[in-house]
Amino acid sequence: RCGLVEQDHLGVQRKGGCHVQQLLLALRKQARGAVQPALQSEDTGNFRDALAAGYSALAGEREGRVVAYGVLMLGPGEAQLLNLSVVPDARRAGLGRTLLDRFLREAVRLGAGHVFLEVRVGNAPAIALYEHAGFARVARRAAYYPPDAAGMREDALVMRRDVGVPGPHGI
Question: Which of 38, 140, 161, 165 has its CA 20 to 30 A from that of 126?
Answer without folding.
Answer: 165
